[in-house]
Fold these 4 entries.
Entry 1:
Amino acid sequence: MNLKKFEEDLSNSKKIFEKLNEAGKTIIKHHLEERNIPFSEIKSRIKDPNSAIEKQRSKKYESPMRDMTDLVAFRVIVFLESDVEKVEEILRSTFEIDENNCIDKRKKSIDQVGYRSLHLVCSLGDDRKSVPEYSTLCNSKFEIQIRTALENAWAEIEHKQNYKGENSLPESLQRRLMIVAGALELVDKEFSNIVKEAAQYTHELANSTESVLEDKISTTSAEALLENLAKEEGKQYKPVKNKFKNTLIGELAAFGINSNKELKGLIETTKAKVLQNDDELTLLGFYRDSMMAKDLERYLRASYNNSFTFLLDEIEFLEGVCEYKNVRSILKKYDADFDEVRWSDIE
């Protein structure tokens, strides 16, 4: 094809590319979020005309506007290798896939390491032609790359340093580069394995498997036991930020709760009271209430450390549900902070 004609076609298609770029990113993001697939980033780009012309010079496509499938391209960056297949499944059900042009660069021979990514060539598909904003875009193809964060970091380093190709560096440095690439691949796989086994661990905790009950408590086990309780009791579980989680483990240990078995026992002996106080279960709120319901003075003496201010809601829970007498006097004895207001007054 005449390069001048191709350059004109690219210029005339600029608005189409911009609309497709916006539509594709919106659709990808919507479907991943709808299926609760965590992702690091969704990137998009329209191929630079000069780059497209250089590619045509090299590839000599018969019809570059049709055959050059990456004039608009997206990159979905996920955290785990196991999420790549989940994203692939969603995208295959979302778009029309050009199987002949898809490339799976994750598949390597036994002596290969390095760049890995899944490339899908897609179009919006005939089903979207009835949607006015998509009607002119449905036949245009675009590429979606799916990578993990580590794969993306490796690809960016290779690109920036121009290390692609087996002859890009002296042999000794090339070998070291390949060793690093192999190590990154193993790390990627191990991250996915750890997440998978952590999910299995929470399942075993929920089913009171003896081997995991003897383990030392962790934020993972504390969350798993509380999430399971929330499901059983029809309560809402609200996750907390990571920075607060280690605070809880320290408080539990000071209170004398060190194993998952002991933590499960604390839940069983106090949940009838605590669930009356908490409609929405949070990690710190539930376990602190549990320790206070079990032994208020022990909690104040060993675990409290003036880490929060008692409000009227807590006083009513301790006196009305837990049946402690003179709670204000007990708090004063341990120099605990107290304020005569309710949560509703300060929220």
Entry 2:
Amino acid sequence: MSGIGELSPYLVLILVGFLPNEVWRALGLVLARGLNEDSEIVLWSRAVATAILAGVIAKLILFPSGALADIPLAVRFGAALIGFAVFLAAKRSMFAGVLAGEAALLAGGYLLER
């Protein structure tokens, strides 16, 4: 039974954090199947999602917590700019932008720690 005790935090994370979210994602997929991508509701939903994401990114840059708070504002802001520039340069590749921004953040944090 000690094996279950060691896994209990992960089981709670899956049951409370992951599964409830996946239900809504699956429902969204089913409901959005027939929607036109240029319809008003889809454009509005995309705008709201973009605004929420921008707010989260701004909060992480301006009011960080944990280990991110130890990295200076200039490095956090610079990493975001680098990530955005790479995103645009790589033909709007989200993966490339996130990878470049994260690499810049880690490199800046490492160099300032020395």
Entry 3:
Amino acid sequence: MFYRLFPDGSRQSVPLHNQFAGPQTTSCWIIGGGPSLNALPWSQIERSPAPRFSINLSGASLLRPTFWTSYDPTHRFHRSIYLDPGILKFVHSCRAMDLIPQTTFKVCEAPNLLCFDRTRGRGFHDFPSPGGQDIQRPVQIRERDCLPGITDWQDSFVQAIDIAYRLGFRRLYLAGCDMFIAPSAELVTFASTFGVSYQTHEPLGAFLRRCIQAGAARAELERHALGDQYHFDEEKPFAAAVQTDEHYFRVVQYLRLSRRALSLSGLEIISVTPDSRLNDHFPIRSVEDAVQDILYDVGDPAAESTRGMYTCPSRPRERPLAPMRDVPPHHWNSARAPQQHPPIPEEAIPLEEG
């Protein structure tokens, strides 16, 4: 699934499938580039004991990601992302031989960077899992398109969700994932002079078409600014932003139509973005509540005391536990079972020097 590529074309497989899964559901923040991230308590997200998965330029100037992925060309992203060894990066293999911006290094030479292959033709019935073997696939989908690569719906957000699932995360909190671009207040006011009102989360293209049908000239509409597009300092031209909003709308519908498959795969998608197109279709939580859930599962590093950790003979338990014993399942093939070792009494375990 994931592998390292090298400038001479050789590759090395890196097995990460379910590496971040555990005995309970593991959580991950998906960080989008929407303007709402500026208003969210992003410092709480950064301090919480859960990794942050950034997409493209998301998180720039606010928080540093744990994981990162992109779909667009390499030159659109910062050198410090590629060369930061503390960030685990995932890029499609077609970007491997690009140059890292402002360097003569190939992308594949970047530290802690892995490549993957994409799969086209995956439907809503088996996203993000490559399962669905009981469903008759359309005959026009070729066998090679059913390989278990990362889903290619031409979107980095979908790509990040699929990668996070392959890594073993089963609860994704979406922060800064507005998934829409709104018209500015000035544009809404201008449209009202033609008797047209903007409907919440309406695709920009549909809104503009209604304005034009009511008599507004497109050139006049484009003289007005759109709302904020990102939480960082960047914006697209008017026409490109309208196309981007249409893309956001389409991706939201992709995920809406994938809800049954998401449920069957055990993947929870939870929005912590207050005003997102996704909020009509997925559960909504506040960042504060999401952080509390993570702290409940993992523990609160800020509240943990170190006093007595090296000197107390044993740790007091919060509550007494019933007896436990590791037992094999019935009819378990002992030849396949891992070698069992008797438990070592705690007093027999040697301590570190001092």
Entry 4:
Amino acid sequence: MAREHFDVIVIGAGLSGIDAGVHLQRQNPDKSFVILEGRAQLGGTWDLFRYPGIRSDSDMYTLGFPFKPWTGDKAIADGATILEYLNETAREYGLDRKMRFNHRVVALAWSSDDARWTLDIETPQGRTQFSCGFVLACAGYYRYEQGFTPDFAGVESFRGRIVHPQSWTDDIDYAGKRVVVIGSGATAVTLVPELAKTAAHVTMVQRTPTYMVALPGRDGVARALMRLLPRKAAFFLTRWKNVALATAFYKYCRARPDVARRRLLALVRAKLGAGYDVEKHFAPPYRPWEQRLCVVPDGDFFEAVKDGRASIVTDRIARITDAGLALESGATLDADLIVTATGLILQPLGGARVTIDGAPLDLGATYYYRGAMFSGVPNLAAVFGYVNASWTLRADLICDYVCRLLKTMDARGARIVTPVRAGAGGARREAWSDFSSGYFARAAGKFPVQDADKPWRLDQNYPRDFLDMRYGAIEDGVLRFSSPPTREAA
């Protein structure tokens, strides 16, 4: 079977894959590349999720690409608008001609002798193989085929419909229905006010509360700057304004958690009124930013609760009954539709199997290098965004860094680059993230670990990473550059 060969293969045609394609075209025009997408269209998350109200939980001035300024009216945009922005970007840069859809990468095999990766790919026509010198994985961080749903007792007895938001379809009818949304994360906080517009009533059932904060859906500063300055200048200033505010707030929450907690709860009280039990329903047992904080655009979630169209129940589910939910407190909830907004199933590299010279790779035994590569793994980088800021901020840094790395390899005449960790035997190992969210805990062991020091640590600090990744030296004494022996020498 003849294999197509490329200098670089990008896995995934979502936000990160599009970012990677633009950087490669701009910075490495001599490199051939292709973007492989397992689904039938581009967009990743923004094409997959179709539940009512789907929107970003990061502002579009940081979620948008730095090379294509966001000019939309809303800072917190809906999913359809984001998807159109991604399609427009791909068309504008000609990346739609670089994409191969329905090409799902299931395995990657590295050969040191050949200095190349061979990718096993599933297509509607059957299996095929591509090869390349470098892989940039932009396949996201969760399993697209299925979301996470706990094993609730009694599921089979429920007379209505149970759906996970990741599997939402257009035929789901909730108008005039009693809806129960299980969960308290960003998806639940998005769904509840949207469903409450036409449902008879929406009840959000949560085991643990989540910190929430209301923010304007439109950025007044950005709109003013757009009127006064050229588009690119206004976007640049707004982007860094939002980065600075988010970074400062995150540091404040981690440094003074008790004060931050009181302030966040006071803001919720101001939205719901003094008579609402904020401590019970909005005061988590963890400190602010130990899990992702939920943004509520224009306070729509709080308005739905205050108006009585939605309510919150903080309890544990004993079982699902034929008519709804039975809770451990003894209370029951009647429902026509149950939505399990209970999280994601995390997986690295799109779930593909990886071998290095025939040996299976245990990614969980490696260390993150600059948050982009893995100790002992040659010619492979992967995008994983920030947990406390916009995904695109780190995605763009990683894509730019990989292009710089490719240039350095060419300058050195090297075909292989590997992060090498010295003295790994007594190395300190820390979890890849200190977030306590359930979906992070369930993924323990699947993702690389980190150390206390650079370059083996993932800082959740965009300004610091910006200087390091964009302007720091590529040759730092950690990367090992090499080439395979020539056939003659072998």
